[in-house]
Write a sequence for this structure.
């Protein structure tokens, strides 16, 4: 395993693609849909080797935190607040997780955090810029 701390940092939402189509596909309740639209979510990642703490701070003070170790099953929470178990894998420098109804990848590309969620052919892409 590489000793890089590639993911560690704070990232602020910059833009997304296909949000509406994606949240419809995964059946997100409409109040959550509005809350998440162009939402200045700040994603805070602490990486120590294969151990990650991944927090999303929403405007208004709500925070969702998932802690996991690459290759080990962990308890996670979805965008909509559902709890589930997932094993996060590292593939070509990307973190890959299978959520109950979508596949999620995250990578650092050009200094930005790029997250892609795919559900039945609908691809949602979210880009966040590094702020700390």
């Amino acid at each position: 395993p590489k000793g890089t701390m590639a993911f560690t940092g704070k990232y602020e939402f910059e833009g997304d693609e296909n949000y509406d189509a994606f949240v419809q596909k995964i059946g997100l309740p409409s109040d959550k849909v509005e809350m998440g639209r162009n939402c200045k979510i700040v994603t805070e990642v602490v990486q120590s080797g294969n151990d990650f703490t991944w927090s999303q701070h929403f405007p208004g003070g709500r925070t969702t935190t998932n802690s996991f170790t690459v290759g080990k099953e962990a308890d996670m929470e979805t965008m909509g607040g559902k709890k589930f178990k997932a094993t996060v894998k590292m593939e070509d420098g990307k973190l890959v997780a299978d959520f109950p109804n979508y596949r999620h990848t995250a990578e650092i590309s050009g200094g930005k955090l790029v997250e892609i969620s795919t559900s039945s052919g609908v691809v949602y892409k979210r880009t966040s810029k590094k702020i700390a």
Notes: The radius of gyration is 14 Å. The chain has one domain: 9-130. The longest strand covers residues 9-17. The chain has a mean pLDDT of 90.
